[in-house]
């Protein structure tokens, strides 16, 4: 039985499910939300209600926030009536909202001044996963704090990644969601082109799902190539650039706007301008890092995706 | 035993491996290339050499071309000394080069005038796959022609997709390579951002490979959502747009140029301008089609990825 | 002689010059800044110093803010110690910082609650123009407020545009700076292409300055064409699209990345997808508005640029 | 009186006007076009008709081509029946079409083999200017050839720029049209933003025409700053980047897609990643050249725009 008192602020679509799972699994929960219905529902499940952040802060040793933006998180964390000013030393604020990483950094600085600490643990997957306690969490926390919050995360989700120190949870989520949203756009542009070409959709999907166009790149190609420091060519940047020229020429002839294809084309053009045309196309990762003076990405030797 | 005489023009890095596999598996092959070494090597394996397109055309009923660009393909297919002018009626030209689909269309028109036909069968995967007869082919052909070339494709590769009529092979390859090259850029931008954020690479990869950011979208999410005509929200376009705002704000603060992220952000902005902010983010596929007056993509009912 | 007491908060590189010009021209000024040197310099010129926003607010009827971001502006305007809580009814806050228009809107709502009002008057041109009282101001204000602040603006600059109600000054500045910064990028891409082409720079400049590529478009072409509702073609969107295809093909062959050219190309592709290829290329303005459900821009009949 | 026989191939919307002006001003003209009406009209004005490129080539010492694409130009210039195979040594082919510069380079190589030469002189301005002999020509030619064709150009237009050797005319036109088409898009995005902001159009135009947003940059700012090697800041890249952040944040809030603004923002981000944030914003020209390994653009000392 966990002996900590848990505060939970923010019982929206996701937060309510997450809080419910905590109560159902035996955690002592004090909840707060502007919406009295959501509070009542949680009270029925066994939580206590609080109408006052300061009171909740005094009563709890772990406070979870699940709020829309950094404005709301800062308004409950900071100030004379806020969590940091009223909780006891050692309290952990676990913010599970998706907010700007710099806001998380500011919270952590303020927490340290009060002898407390912050954990950032934004949520992956959809609301229906939260209902079933199948969420994914990307967690930035010290090892000690991670150990304290881990039982709560296990109660709310099925996959927990400890990404590193405070701030890495939110940053990892941004990298992840950049990829997720962009793939959505890429798929959409590909399907638009396919439709305009008059291709059979089922056939196109079969091909896209059967080749490395499917993001096996990150699992298979990148780790063996650029991330291992090997850019000897399987498929060169020059050939990738040539294929994108054919794609865009065909798209322009067919009147299919493909802004992402065009942006990619220019990036490969920049690589060619920097004399990298003959390396493997995964090497674009090195080129992009070099052009922005970022350290190249390398996996440790022996790394495997599984 | 296949009774057709096969011509093979273009013994480059890929073509030579493909032709070799045909000879080794018992096909009667006549080959041609500007490079005498490659021709000699094939002759040693059992092929006959030809120095003359017209002669090769007269002698073969299926002629394969594997050449750098449409210029070379047209120069061997067209004209008084070309394939169409010299082959017997019923001959099939199977072009396996990656060329502009409009060039394939022009070849097919010319073939029809001579009582012949064209198959476009560009090659997926890498040169090393061609060595091992493990290439993937995307084939545009009539059903009858597909049946004729299928044994050859099976001898040269391990995966053969019949995409539809002539011209669909090359178009499918363009759609596929758009996705493949763009994913490469997306991964590279994501890794650059992750590096600048100071994230641990192994942790980042674990997350990216463990969530739907990995292109499970096209296998799982799209078919059940937008491609089935269902855009009730799991994760809305508005939320995707908000996350991209956070991504770009963090990238700008960290001085990481992300041109593809920026292009995606504007596309989602266009969707919001068209009152589509509250639909599922897979619905961007419909929005893109609508804004370009393209028919929306829909899988037939009962479609499954496997 | 102006009888109002003027407060001036923010004596940075621009603000100090502006405040100095006010004092020199006889306005009664109370100044405030974190930097004591800047305050001392103004006091020497005849201003009074204030160390306290509340005191300054009680003493002045027009308060000017010239601060880095909306955070600083809001911190002096709002709260118990801020301008609105301490100034007398009828006081005008003239914010000359460049901040987000929504922040200006929030300030105005708060001002109204206190019987006060806001003027947004961001500054155009460079610091050296501010030194010489040659700045340009884009002003959002009620007519009455504009009349009150006009003498101050005339003392600090040489060009004053009354753009409309509160909030229009900052919005106009954003539109203007979008154009200014983007033209800078466009010129830079053009010069990079010209250099890679090996063209003589003086010759290229002569041509660029001698044709409508020079932004005579907005003075001459747009008002007579799209802004007058006339999109009969002088130079069609199709031809503009074709020329951009040639530009990008040449740039790609020469390894010159041109991300802006690529984005423009896709926008013209979207216009063609919407059956607008045969209208005048200025008509892209209508297409962009239509695709984003924005009212088309039209000048009143009889409008002239001078 | 000019003693050369002039051939003119291509009597389309522009070509017919240009040819007419030559005949009216006393040049001996032989014309050719697929459209018999256009030929008849020119014959009425005093030209002779030719139905045969070879005959025209034998009869003329300067042959002008004004055709849709490089395909048509090459088909009349090259081959056994073409201009080069049939004209006398010393003949000049003046191509006034807008074609890919590499096609011009190929023509010139072929011309040299026949003891002839090429002039590329694409046309600026609109069809109505061609009617009134007010076209602008960007000419790539040797000095001797330029002297020969100059009288013809003066008869067809009012502004003639000798840009350099063969190939520079077309390349200059591409640079110029990149700027012209892109400014059109930039103006359109600016007007869309202004409309969505609810700004008064006449006021916005007044501001845009009154500040350096109007392309005085290339006439005034660039020559004194980056093109003179001076990037001490008037307005820094960091400030330009910050303003673009405000522009895009406001545009996103207002649901105005601005793909060009987004591309520009990323370019300034790349400059900041390369430690160039504190230089003058015109310095983006140097940054772009450096990142693509292009020689920086510099005007000769003493250069002036007039």
What do these coordinates show?
- 4 copies of one chain form a homotetramer.
- Chain A has 306 residues and is an alpha/beta fold.
- Chain A folds into 2 domains: 5-166, Rossmann fold (3-Layer(aba) Sandwich), CATH 3.40.50; 172-291, Orthogonal Bundle (N-(1-d-carboxylethyl)-l-norvaline Dehydrogenase, domain 2), CATH 1.10.1040.
- Helix content of chain A is 53%, strand content 13%.
- Chain A has 14 helices and 9 strands.
- Chain A has helices spanning 13-24, 36-45, 53-59, 70-77, 83-86, 101-113, 127-131, 143-156, 168-196, 201-210, 216-224, 237-253, 259-273, 284-291, and strands spanning 5-9, 28-32, 48-49, 62-65, 92-95, 117-120, 123-124, 135-140, 157-164.
- In chain A, the strands form 2 sheets. Chain A has a 6-stranded parallel β-sheet, with helices on both faces. The first copy, chain A, has a 3-stranded mixed β-sheet with strand order 7-8-9.
- The model of chain A has no long low-confidence stretch (mean pLDDT 94).
- Chains in contact: A-B, A-C, A-D, B-C, B-D, C-D.
- Chains A and D meet through helix 13 of A and helix 13 of D.
- Chains A, B, C, D: The active site is at residue 173.
- Chains A, B, C, D: It is an enzyme of class 1 (oxidoreductase).
